[in-house]
Amino acid sequence: MQTAKINTLREKLKEKAPLIHSITNPISINKCANAVLAVGAKPMMAEHPTEVCEIAKTAGAVVLNIGNITDVRKKSIMKTAVFCHSNNIPFVYDAVGVACSLLRRKYTAKLLKKAPPTVIKGNYSEILALYDSDYNAVGVDSERLDMTDIEKAAKKLSKRYNAIILASGKTDIVTDGKKLFRINNGTAMLSRITGTGCISGVLCGCFLAVENSVYAAVAALAMLGISAELCTSKGQASFEAELFDDLSTITDSDIEKHLKLEEVAL
After folding, report:
1. pLDDT for 219-230, tens place per residue?
2. Which residues are 165's β-sheet partners?
3. Which residue positions in the chain have pLDDT lower than 50?
4. Beta bridge partners of 180
């Protein structure tokens, strides 16, 4: 049943080909744009404060990422979040580094209060930091944290902000407070390529543009994880190239054969 749902969303995405407006970091902007194209949507990567709302108005969904934060990008992201929230435009907020930076933590707290996103995304550490203001981590990568604690934090955050929570890790966790899913697709190579977390965020935005539901995040993570599993390359450069090939050529049968998805009763 879940494989059929994901494949239906994939087909709708290709048919609709929505515009996905992303304000993301320059480290991964090219990869994110290519990922959007690979799954059949259209990317727009505009971040000037005077035009972001005008562009967001035309988008099927918006993705906001604070991976490389600047004063201009802070202003643009906040303006866009408030505009999307006020105009019912679905948007993803990727809270990169919020567990290890007071600046990011305070900025994110302000944004979540003013304009709760459709999807709040982070790795295990970032989700814990959003849930518990006393939690701190070193760097942006998730530590080896207890998944039970992550799921508890994700469920509480979902209810606090009426948002879908995406917690990425060895097992990806997605919840809307009513349903909770564990996705076990992917390979260790994903962590060796810069920007794969940003890619999962824009893929989530792509699926949000065709269905504003928890399944958008599930489909995004499943598609990226399975595409990585289909790669046969052993080196970083060839793996990255093959990952985009697989994202653009993955089939319904690939999803049906490789999906590792568990729904947990709440």
Report:
1. 999 999 999 999
2. 120, 175
3. none
4. 175, 264
